[in-house]
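ligand=adenosine-5'-triphosphate
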Amino acid sequence: MAHPQPVSPPLPLLQVQGIEMRFGALKVLDQLDFSVGANEAVGIVGPNGAGKTTLLNVLAGAHAPSQGTVWFRGVDVSAWNAADRCRSGIARTHQVPRPFLGMTVFENVLTAATHGAGMHTRDAGDRAMHALRLCGMEALVNRRAETLGLLGRKRLELVRALATGPTVLLLDEIGGGLTDAEASELVDMVRTIRSRQIAIVWIEHLVHVLLQVAARLVCMDGGRVIASGDPHEVLSDATVVEAYLGGVAA
Ligand SMILES: Nc1ncnc2c1ncn2[C@@H]1O[C@H](COP(=O)(O)OP(=O)(O)OP(=O)(O)O)[C@@H](O)[C@H]1O
């Protein structure tokens, strides 16, 4: 009789293990472990200074940690820089959108596809238009980025990240400064992106916005993960309530 083969759990898509990140004497990430699975949507919350953006920078290759390993699709990418990681499928947005202000919306997205993803101009043009259409920004292609308001710049930031062809998208507080109605538009865009089987890691202080997308919530404090799991369970965890919610349950 054939014996059943042991089934190994799927490898995480993107994973960090034992990460320590210091800025001089300040230890910002402390033996941190974190992972996101293929197609997963993970939200990250935590008090100011918890190390959330620093973690995103380590995942994206913008910071080289003093210790620890970063794995992407089972490959050790710890020594890869941000450009190499972007080309391999790790895209990110910044807390403050950074479009090329003098360029049009289309040129901004095209540049993401050519420089971020390393595509040739013709393929990059198709990729850029596809990303713009997917996110409902095709009517704005000829607008100069400097004429866009905050929501428009945030939407453009998302489209630029999408145009690099990511497998995982790292979002840093894209909801900040928006009204609830504007944040809903971003949520719709992120959901559309999710529907293309792109994993999401989203840092956000607007928890009610984050919960519309995140299937798992991670709470960080003091450079460590203090809770991870079902969002509502994490938000009622006593350690999270104390560290993040000022002692008052969400
Ligand atoms: N480049 C840097 N040089 C020195 N210190 C830094 C640097 N980047 C971050 N820090 C410090 O590291 C700590 C963590 O910062 P980080 O931005 O990762 O926190 P965060 O959890 O994202 O906070 P917030 O919610 O306020 O954005 C803070 O004390 C910050 O001042």
